[in-house]
Amino acid sequence: MHANASLRAWCASTLFSTGLLLSAAPALAADEFGSDWDDPRTADPAVARPPTASCTVEILDTSFADFDWHYGRIAAPAACPGPWNKVVLEMDGAVKGVQYDRLGYLQIGGMTVFSTSTPEPSREGIQWHVEKDLSAYASLLKSPQEVRMYLGNVVNETYTGVIHIKARVTFYNTDRRHPPTPAADSVAALAGERRDGADLVGDTTLPANAQRWIAEVYATGSGGGCEEFWYFTAPPQANYSCPAQNGPYREVQVLIDGRVAGIAMPYPHIYTGGWSNPFLWYVMPAPRAFNIEPIRYDLTPYIGLVNDGRLHEVRFRVANLPDGASGWTLQPNLQFWRDPHRASTRGGLLSYELGTLANDPAYSSPSAGNFQVDTRGGHRLRASGWLETSQGRVITHVDRIVGNRNLHHWDEGEFHDGVKGDWDDTETVTRIGGGLPSVAVNSQSFGFDGLLSFEPVEDHYRVTTRLNIYDDANALQTPAPGAAPLAQVKRNRFDGEAGWNYGVPRDQRHAVGHSTQRHQRFGSQGCYDHEIGQSNGFVSVDKYRCGQP
Fold first, then answer.
1. Which of 394, 406, 443, 522 maximizes the CB count within 10 A of its CB?
2. Side-chain half-sphere of 365: how many Cα atoms within 13 Å?
3. Across residues 135-160, what is the average pLDDT?
4. What is the pLDDT of residue 257?
């Protein structure tokens, strides 16, 4: 057993566990953390809204102190019957006392449309705000639907924080300059959804006249155990506290009737208790912590194989999991576009090439008492399919390339434990026919460079976390029928460090921390550049270089 076994056991429950401005910064920053701090916020942009008439409906007003579903309803008001230019979800949260961060998700019509984690509170209490564009799910909202939210939360003598949530949806009407959102004609859940080992499996029947098909899945390694921080796992011969026989490479796949039809990199989410250091996240969470983005796959090349009116199996899988692993949450939906002028489309697969999954977790000991696993992995999938539509024959080619380099290093006893991870995921979709050829490229690069240290000081440990995080994306779409050209760049950076004394009374923790986030977006949708900085729980920098609301 490692020398710091008791500390590592504590970490098992807190390590990697489970924004708009809400308050003003004080005139002077504190020397260290006290019992209260500023409300959480991010530098992320709010959802852009059109200047059209709108209607807002409250869909949820509840408090979470259990593991039950909480219910509401949603129906578009008569003044905003649709179609809509945009549909926006806003969620406000509040909690005070003592509480861990919690994971939750909101469903409309039985399908997850929003996934989130919560901040850890101060004893005096905090409030936070999150927004999400729900326009992709507009077809769900054409008729009244049940709303339900899950946010499992323990409340007892120790963990006193009851989490209060209010949620509302605003529908924005269209006009000549603001046309309807190009959302799917239908959004469907898997039929007979079930678990098969670690896989999530179900069935679907495609519309006979389907002409475009997107699969979406909210995928998080957040259900407990080592998969909650999968990028730290190491092959068994490394004798690391979280073993995985194939190392830390993970890939989220979708399979149709047993054939791999989509591949993607999972995002390495860090929640607000993550890396043993909630003091790093009290005011500014890591990217995507409050708004967990789904993975999307273009499955259009396969329509001709499965739009025969029969049930076909769709399976979501986290590839390269260790045997018997648990902890991954997979919440999918399927989105279909129909040919408005034909009762059925027909087609087939022109080409299909699934490369060999490359994964090489190389374990070594570069010096006495120091160890590392250097992992290099990647995969490529190319598929082309044809469809006879009302606009003639349309050929869709999808090329997706994913890759990961993960350098994990630690010392004897894991007192110093660090990871430098980089993930790349690029999907290129080319369509020929039905008008002008179109090309859409979505390229994501994300990762971090972090170190977690446990330094012995007298009868306790000083826990220090240092993290540099990036979350970048480039999107390019050439003109196509019904779509505007797009060129957009996102650069999102988080840098922070925090330290505190573990194993002492609360008033002796002497916690300090500072962090900055700068979120930039520029391109055909305009310019946005917002930077926030905090020191010991109070915002010290809040400035816009462009795109100020």
1. 406
2. 10
3. 96
4. 98
Average pLDDT estimate for 310-318: 97
Q: What percentage of the chain carries pLDDT values higher than 90?
A: 88
- CA distances from residue 375 to 247, 414, 461 in whole angstroms, order as listed: 7, 19, 30
Q: Is 276 left (phi over 0), alpha (psi -120 to 50) or beta?
A: left
CA 77 to chain centre: 30
| Separation between Cα atoms, residue 168 and residue 489, nearest integer Å | 29
The C-alpha atoms of residue 442 and residue 242 are separated, in whole angstroms, by 33
DSSP, residue by residue, 339-377:
-TT-S--EEEEEEEEEPPPEEEEEEEEEETTEEEEEEEE
pLDDT at 20: 32
Q: What is the DSSP letter of 508?
A: G
Q: Could you tell me where the beta strands, DSSP code E, fall in 458-536?
A: 460-477, 486-502, 512-523, 528-535
Name every residue whose Cβ is closer than 8 Å to that of residue 482 and which is 6 or more positions away in sequence. 182
pTM, two decimal places? 0.92
Chain segment 70-100, per-residue pLDDT in tens: 999 999 999 999 999 999 999 999 999 999 9
Q: Is the peptide bond before 83 cis (omega within 30 degrees of 0)?
A: yes
Phi-psi region of 482 (alpha: psi -120 to 50; beta: other; left: phi over 0): left
| Phi, psi values for residue 45, rounded to 5° | -75, 150
Cα gap 110→10, rounded to integer Å: 36
Q: Give the DSSP letter of residue 169.
A: E
State the chain's mean pLDDT as an integer: 92
Residues forming a β-bridge with 521 = 490, 528
538-546 vs 416-432, strand pairing mode: unpaired
